[in-house]
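Sequence in, structure out. Go.
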Amino acid sequence: MKQLCSIAVTLLLSLFCIANVFAGQQKKPNIVFILADDLGWADVGFHGAKDIETPVIDKLANQGVRLESFYAQPMCTPSRAAFLTGRYPMRYGLQSFVITPGQHYGLPTDERIIAQDLKEAGYNTYAIGKWHLGHSDKAHWPQNRGFDYFYGTTIGNVDYYTKEKAGVVDWQRNGKYLKENGYFTDLITKDAVRIIEGQSSEKPFFLYLAQLAVHSPYQAPQKYIDQYKHIKDKTRRLYAAMAASMDDSVSQVINALDRKGLRENTLVLFVSDNGGLAGSGYGGVMQKITGGKPAPADNGPFRGSKASLYEGGVRSVAVMNWPGHIKPSINNEVIHMVDFLPTLLNLAGVKSKGDKPLDGKNVWPVITEGKPSPHDDILINAEFHRGAVRKGKWKLINNAALPSSVELYDLECDPGEKHNLAKQHPDVVQQLEARLNEYAKDARASLYLREYMPFIVEDYKTASMVYDGDEDSGQPGEKPVLPPQD
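Output:
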């Protein structure tokens, strides 16, 4: 009898140990998502940057996975929405341009975002930096969308030091407006480090660190500017200094995770929201400010700039790093910004409670097992006047605004989109146009155009704003419409 009891106790202890081991293996990962703003594809060292050094970001890339066929939306607001919802922005009216300071709309509140799902699954959730998904109504603010905490700016860009736009300060911590001295990148980094140092290994956290760098206005601390004295063009020099400051920001975040003993259970993502503002990407107000000089970013082999549907506007820098879980590799499978939500929720063991179908797919097997992309095609964008879709090696761009045009590119042979093959392959054009129109049928009317229509009716000169995709600060002197302090 004693022998049977002994065996039973041994079995129970064994099962308890196995259960503990299994539980340890299933521990929810911490997630740190660092979003760069307007970073050129070729402005990181691992993509061959000619005059900018990004050693920390390069280390993350070289020790993790580089997503080399990663697609974002052409501009800031739509890309952020795509990440947070896992759905294409055209489904909820955010497909065109960005939310400028004087506008009143935001990411519709019936769209569920990743922070809500992670919070309900037991995660601490933090948003730090640039929001740009609605500022005039507090219902659109991150702390009312599933984030436990928010520190930063709600509009698209502010002065890096004063945090002002057209004389209005947009800088807050959890709804309390602040006037703080200091450089934007330094302040959000310091806060991110503070947040990390306050975490416990017993409860997972999600940190969404949305940099303003390297978006205009081009400003940087002198110590970083001095590192790039060899760059003759002033705007490019400032841009490089901003990138260097951001690289130091990433370094401080990684070091904080190491010091706290959290690095091994933390997935770190570094992603740009769109391509860089490059070449002749300037127009309107920015042309006057820069004296007609080229924009500062370098998108490498890709044609176009931020706001365009060419690869230079939508093919973005993207890196994922998690020691022991992601092997150093280069991944060329097609992945889209919308894929992060289902992928991260899957890793966290969370099923979204959203009632709307996702466009994103779980791409973890693509990243860790070398599986092919689960997408038959991806929508690059669908607007009333233009759209683009990619299927396999083929990419179609349809410009409906007169004079209309159709462009077809073989991205395997022609990643720079130099040779329009639409006339040579009418069957492919027909197929992709049909697919693009299928997507467009599900599109909601652009909230940007609906908001700006009164301006256009009253003053026809502002109609050009609808198409002027280089400068997302709004019209000259456009003041941010912020709700009053509680």
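Check: Residues 7-25, 456-470 have pLDDT under 50 and may be disordered. Residues 42 and 48 are 6 Å apart (CA to CA).
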